[in-house]
Amino acid sequence: MAVTIKDVARRAGVNPSTVSRAIHNHSAISEKTKERVRKAMADLDYSRNSAAQMLASGKSGAIGVIFPPIENKSEQPFFMKILTAINEEAHQNKITVSIASGHTIEELLSQVRVMYQEKRVDGFIVLYAGEADDVRDYLLAGEIPFVIVGTPIERANEMTAVDNDNKLMGAEAAQYLAGLGHKKLAFVTNTDKGEVFHERYRGFEEKIKSLGLNGQLLYTSESLALDNVTALVVLDDILAIKVIQGLTERGITVPDDISVISFNNSVFASLIHPYLTTFDINITQLGHSSVQKLLHLIADPDDFREKVTVPFELKVRESTKAVN
């Protein structure tokens, strides 16, 4: 039988959560305790190979990926790219991936129940965050291992999440444009829902206020009233391309008349001129980390919950320029 984190905890005389924190070299754990945990791991020949432990325990050797209940998933390159990354990491760990997808929460919940109750999967990666729903309530109530890609609004301390710092990204977008001399900025969105929007806009709003600049929030469902705005921060690349097309139809040129900065660094960001200045959110690492954390939770159900923050990088291209 495979040695578990509980066995190591008993040997070291600490809690399982302490063992997990020691393994992750958490600063809250003293070096003396870390050394005691390391010795217990060595004595018991404990392996951190989560996939191996999972298979040794008679698990299915498969994980589920839950897509959000939205109509236009195929129009969002994020989902295909992160699914590719999840498949790559799963393959490296010799496990398989199953998909749960539907147009409503009810359809999703039905699939998730069948997948878990029939032991087709051992846990789930949920590709949406924000407010709780029946799917997440089911996973929490059943103590089913799962990882969220994104930042949950409710009961966040009970879940493991993998995400970027979206608030910091919004702030850095405003900071970059301010550095180019722009003084009147706008944040453009097609939704007022979701944690991604709220965090990116909050970071943008707080930064422009701290810099003493003018800013506003614009919705693409309305005609964009630019009112001397010289730079736009757009919620994501797909929306940014649509915004640029709309500006072009009005005789407004990007970046000569107005600069545009976006998020996600999707495949479309460098397909159509002007190439987008955008934040690379490191989707590959988001996918890999979500699999790694889920396998660890499956192998060690008592492991502590945490938020894993994946770094981002600004890709400066053609859609932004300094003001004269």
TrEMBL record:
Database matches in InterPro entries: HTH_LacI (IPR000843), LacI/GalR-like_sensor (IPR046335), Lambda_DNA-bd_dom_sf (IPR010982), Peripla_BP_I (IPR028082)
Sequence intervals crossing the membrane: none
Taxonomic superkingdom: Bacteria
Signal peptide: none
Gene3D superfamilies: 3.40.50.2300, lambda repressor-like DNA-binding domains
Domain HTH lacI-type: 3-57
Keywords from the named record: DNA-binding, Transcription, Transcription regulation
GO MF annotation terms: DNA-binding transcription factor activity; transcription cis-regulatory region binding
CDD domains named among the record's database cross-references: HTH_LacI
Name of protein: LacI family transcription regulator
